[in-house]
Every structure is written in structure tokens, then in C-alpha cells.
Amino acid sequence: MISPTRPKTGAEALALLKEGNIRYMDSLTNPDPMTRKRPALVKDQNPLAIILGCSDARVPVEIVFDQGLGELFVIRVAGNVVAPSQIGSIEFAAEKFDTQLVVVLGHSHCGAVTACVEAMIDPDKYYSPNLQSIVDRIRPSVYNLHELATANGHDVDADELINRSIRANVRMSVSQLKHGSRALEDLTSSGQLLIVGAEYDLETGKVSFLDT
Question: What is the pTM of this model?
């Protein structure tokens, strides 16, 4: 059962996350430590949003959105890539808790995306098979950008390519969630689930929601 204080739509949940991020950015200039209130009931969870984010230690999702325990269902994997286990986790939360918002959260200076760009620039770059599997999932979002960057025969601006690839990777993950799961596709098409992409800026603390 949805509590009276819980957002009833994905758009309402998205507005709460945006407001929370503004509070978080304000807190970065406040010397007082942030306080966290424990939920009254520890046996239940009723998350207002599902976050598919990167494993990077610099992006603590609950803090970034100024949300407490039990308010976000967080799935973290390097490069915020989409694989069957991530899709299954999102399906579980959307169906079990009637959570109506999914945010794919990338971030600036992403190491996984950087690794993929470096592999594109230097084909001899070696990664372990498991890390390579992550790079391979990111590669499609980087490939066209790399081709455009090298079309004029000039040297590639790696930093610019990484920045653009981070956003392209988020958009690709959003598309994969919308179209790679019948359950999520049905929820999205019926208006019961909103899936959006976003990028967290490590320098400013701001989350920018992308036009995906």
C-alpha cells in the first residue's frame, strides 16, 4: 500500500529527487553535518525511486538526492551498464513496491567510460576478461562518437570524447531498460513507470537530468 507521503507518479518522485539534490548542493557550503533520520519501520521498504548508478565511491546516491533509509532502491555497477541482473532488480522493485520512477545516474570522470574510450583510442589496451565485459557493454555508446572524432584525421580530444560518451552511455542504458524488458516496456507504455537519465557532476554536486 502506498503511504500518503509517498509520490503517486514518477513525475512527482522526480520532482522530489530534484528538490533533494538542491538541498544537497546547499549543504556542501554548510559546515554543519547533515543529519539522517532512521525510518520508524525497519522491516518494510517503500522506495520512491529506483536508481541504476555507477559503483564509484564518490557518488553516494542517498546523499546526492538527500534521501533517507528505505527511500531509494539502488543498483550500482561500474559504468551504470545494463545487464540481465540489473534489469531483473529493476523489475522486482517496480512490481513489488509499485515504484514508478527509474533514474539511470551517470557521473563526470567515470572510470568505466574512460576505460572504454582508452580502449577505442588504443586497440592494444588490455583489461581483464571481467572488466572487458563492462567495457564491451559501454562500447556501442562510444563507437559513433569516436568515429566522428577521428573522421577529420585529427588527434582525438580524449577528455571531450569521455564527457560526451558519459551522457551517451546513460542514454543507451535508458533505451535498453525501456526496450529490453517486456515488463518494463509495458509499465512504461501504460504510464505507470517513468525512466529517465541523469549525470552527476563531481565538482558541483549537481544532478542534471538528460533529455533522453
Answer: 0.85
